[in-house]
Amino acid sequence: MPPVAYRARVVVPVTTPPIDDGVVVVDGDRIVAVGSAAELSGRANREHSIDGALLPGLVNARTRIEHTDAAGLTWSGGHDRWLAAVAQRTRDWDEQRVGRSAQRGVHALLRAGVTCAGDVVGAGPAVPAAVRAGLVGDSWVEVADVDERGHDALIAALERTLGLPAPGRRVGIALPGPHRVGTGVLQALADLAARRGRPIHLPAAVTRGEVAAIAEGTGPTAAAAVRHGLEAEWLEGGTGLPPLRYLDACGVLRPGTSIAHAMQADPGELDLLAERGVSVVVAVRAAARTRLGGAPLHALASAGLPVALGTDDPAASGDVDALAEARAFASAARVSGFETWPLPGGPRPLAEAALRLVTADGARAMGWGDHSGALAVGRRADLVGVELDTDAEGATQDVVDGGAGRQVLTVVAGVRRARRRTADEPWPAHDPREEDGTPS
Question: Bias regions of kind Basic and acidic residues — which residues (predicted)?
C-alpha cells in the first residue's frame, strides 16, 4: 500500500509540541513522518482528515474486557457489595459468553482510541480477541483462591499458558489481591514470573480488611477466605506485615510488577515500591464508584513512583475510555491541591500530565514505552482522532477536558480499526473493521 497522510487541525505527538494543521504520514505499519501539512505536502497519495486532534493511540493500564457486558451493573454499597454484584452477574457465563463479552470489550477499546492495554484475564478468550485486533500491552492471567493443595497443578498449568503464542502481547500473572492465595503459592508465582521474564499485576493495600487479613490474619477479609475454603499460611496469626511489605518478602516487588490502587499504603511502603522499580496504576473513577476512596496522590508524587492510568473493570467504571480517566485524574489532582504533577521530565501542568499518563508516560511506567504512547518516526502507526474545536495552544487542555466520547478514528499498526463520520452520531451497531481491519 502507498503511504497515507492523516491530517488534523492539531497533531499532538505528546513527546514534542502540538502542531497546527499537522500531518502524520503512515507507510505500512510505521509512522514515516510527523509535521505540518505545509512541510509534508506530497509525501502521500491519500489523505484522511480529522476535524480536531490527532493523538497517539491511548494507553489503558488496567481493564478487564471479559466484563464488558457487565458495564451497566448497579449495586448498593461499597467494594464488597460490588464484588458480590459482579459475581452474581457473571456466575452463569460459560466460555462462549465470556468470549462474546471480551470481543465487545475489544470493540469498546478501539472505539475509545485505546491501542495498548493491560487486561486482567479470567477465562481466556480475551487474549486471542486482543491479539486479533492488534492491541499491544499485557494480558495478565488471574490466579485466585489457591493454596498449597493446588500449588503443583497451578504452576504446571501456568507454565503451559505462559508458553502459548500471543503476538504483540506479554502474557503475565494477575491476582485479585495478596489475600486470595497462600504464601507458598504467592512465592511460587513470583519465582515463575521472574524465571520467565513475565509481568505481575495486582491490586494491593486496597482495603482495611485486606491490611488486617495479611498483617494479623483477622477481620472480614480473613473470614471470607476461610468461608471460601482457603488454607493460607497468613491465616495462622498473620504475617506481621502490611500487604506491600508482605509482597516484597514474597519476592513479588520487582521491575515488571505493577500495583493497582494502594489506597492503604503509607509513604514508606510507596517509597519501597519506587526502590523496587514497581509502577502504580491509578483508577480514579472505579475507586470512587466502589467507595474505595481516593488515590494517595501526595504520597505517590512524593515517592516519585511511575504512574499510569487505567479504567479498571468496566463493571466498576462503566467504560474503557482512557480520556475519561485522564479527565478524572486531573480533576482529582486539582481538588487535592496540585497545579502540576511530577513526571520523569519534570513537573507538568495537570492536563498535560494527565494526557501523558494515558500515552507516553503511562506506557513507559508499564514497560510499553518502546512501542506505544507517542507519534514519532519509526513508531508503530497507532493513532486516534478526536473531534473537537481546538488549536495547538489549547489542544492538550481541550482533549483532556472534552475529548472523552468524541473519538472518531482509531488506527492500529496502520490499519483503520474503528471509524465514524462524526462524534455527534452514535457508533454503528457492528463494524467489521473492528475485527479484521481495513488497510489505511
Answer: 421-440
Residue with cell 486470595: 180
**Do 14 and 374 meet the contact criterion of CB atoms below 8 Å apart?**
yes
Cβ(235)–Cβ(215) below 8 Å: no
User: What are the Cα distances from residue 295, in Å, to 135, 250, 316, 343, 366?
Assistant: 28, 25, 16, 17, 18
Q: Could you give the residue ranges of the DSSP H alpha helices within 72-178?
A: 79-90, 95-111, 126-133, 151-162
Supply the pLDDT for residue 233: 98
Q: Considering Cα of 421, then 403, then 373, then 429, what sign does the dihedral take?
A: negative
What would the CATH number be for the domain defined by 4-57+374-439?
2.30.40.10
Q: Which tens digits make up the pLDDT trace of 111-130? A: 999 999 999 999 889 999 99
Matching CATH topology for 4-57+374-439 and 58-365?
A: no
> In CATH, which superfamily holds the domain spanning 58-365?
Metal-dependent hydrolases (3.20.20.140)
User: Using alpha carbons only, what angle is made at residue 36 by residues 387 and 413, rounded to the nearest 5 degrees?
Assistant: 60
181-209 mean pLDDT = 98
Residue type, 439: P
Question: What is the tens place of the pLDDT at every residue in 241-281?
Answer: 999 999 999 999 999 999 999 999 999 999 999 999 999 99
Q: Hey, where are the domains in the chain?
A: 4-57+374-439, 58-365
